Amino acid sequence: MRKANHFLIFLSEISGDLTQQLRYFALLNLGIVQSLASGVISATEAVQLFYNAENCLYVREHFRNKKANAIMSHGVQFPDLFEVLSAAEASREFFHELEAMQSLCMNLLATRRATGVAKRVMV
Hints:
The chain has helices at about 20-40, 45-50, 55-65, 65-75, 80-85, 85-120.
């Protein structure tokens, strides 16, 4: 029997300038959202691995970005959905939260991309 490898993702380890870090953050979140939607990881695992207090605080203080902070806020509440709501309601709300997170990530990527394009045009 193989023992599962557990890992933690520390956002403070991402290199690059702030714009690059926000892009990596958004892309990483899109991967986690997909993993949650497909059942590869559970809501509890997502909180343990990524949507934890250390990363939430880092996002709030380092990025100072409302969309990035909202993404983390959505992620950290996943396990609570299944404790408070009925199974059907929790499932419905879980997928609604995933869609909201995906939208925020895509919006963050589009905003950062547009900013980068604008900078290149101005030079």
